[in-house]
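Example with several molecule types.
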Amino acid sequence: MSKARLPLDERPTVLTMNHVEKTFAGNVVALKDMHLQVNDGDFISLLGPSGCGKSTALRLIAGLIHPTSGNIRWTGGQNADDLGIVFQEPTLMPWATVAQNVWLPFRLRGQGYGAVKDEILEALRLVGLEKFQNSYPRELSGGMKMRVSIARAMVTKPRLILMDEPFAALDEITRFKLNNDLLELKEKIGCTVVFVTHSVFESVFLSDRIIVMAARPGRVIRELHVDVAYPRHEEFRTSTEYAAYTRQASDALQDAMGVAA
Amino acid sequence: MSIAETAASSPPVVDQEEALRARRDRINRVAKWTLPSLVLVLSILAWHLYVTLGEVPHYILPGPARVAQAIVDDWGLLWPAMIMTGRLTLLALLMAVVGGVALAVAFTQSKWAEMSFFPYAVILQVTPVIAIAPLLQIYVDSAFTAALLCAWIVAFFPILSNTTIGLKSADHNLSDLFTIYGATRWQRLRYLAAPSALPFFLGGLKIAGGLALIGAVVAEFVIGRAGTGLGLASTLLEASYRFNFGRLYGALILISLMGVVIFAAMSLISHLALRKWHESALKRER
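Resulting structure tokens for the full complex:
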């Protein structure tokens, strides 16, 4: 299933944000003139301090809110199963088992459990939870709940997966483990990811494109490329290369804060 | 390997404090049943002694033996009365569930419906039912229907109000997820709002069960045996007119017994529905 990654500038476009602006309650500018081209196979991190509009950008892409001006276009139009999303909380239905939770995207399209059982079990196997398919969410740890949430987002093999600070509430050990697993998963299913984070380290480890954003008004100030081949493993996390990139991203973030202050 | 072997062969070490805690837990488990039983026996004994030693006349306060005798002697009268009151209560509760849930769904599906009718649901609730009952008796031809309406008005509000809150309390992120996956209105209600509302509804059901019985008793008092036939409450009222206090207490005990049974049944339903996932029904390992 693994897809070879094309160089950054040769990837076909999945989605384009054109001069997107979002203003709340008449005068709070949450996002100002955002321009972003999401390409097939990208792992994009939106990095910035709170209030920089990164979550707003994600909700705009998800279609949960609509731009005040500008537009968001999917190449070839958007289909029902083009999008998967992972929130900061696992957001599982406590009354349903793990397998039923992963079934949800299919179920809402009227597909019976039997018809998509293989896909559900495959997704659970990929996140290492096939043994827990009949457990209820409350029986799982925080990290495991997040894995179920990830399995649900990718079970339909969407073109784009949005992740809104999914690991922010987890402890560092679990977060590192999930970072590694996420990259492995992405290699396996070859999807495109837009990932919101306020952690410089996380963004460098995971992504090939980092969009640095500033607050008041929320806007993009820089784009960094992390030119390190995947698969990336634990060694990358301790390499000098990694340190150099985090320094670069850190500086860009400092600039962002400076501009805002 | 060796560690696993020693752990398996020797019994687990339990220190003295843990043993004490375990002992206290066992005592608590036994006391949970024995203490209330003991209180019951003691209060019946005190009642008996008060009546016999104080030579209280039976038309003021009958002793427990006389009440028990009355229940046995009047069983042929009390049992049909209990069926009658029970039927009224359960029917009212059933109607309260259907009406309360239907209204709650209507209110959450349509803002207009909620704005238009919710204030009147409140007014219906806060008006003392005993003040409406005589009117119902006048306007409704069938006295049984009047009694049923009376009990229904009392019982339906907690179900309406709890279910409405429950239907609105679905997790916001889950709701967003349903939007992203293009859920229809019906799917949203069926797979998201309804399960979220279940614990709230069951809480309302527990309250409504007790209120349905109260409503039935009030209806029997006000509307009387004309329509409902001879229920437990009208039997109680008649017994008081006749100074038959043994029967009066017998009826009273059966009414509260019914209340206990209804509460227990509602608690059981609630437990069975929630035991797999809801915090309220889970036991925690300590």
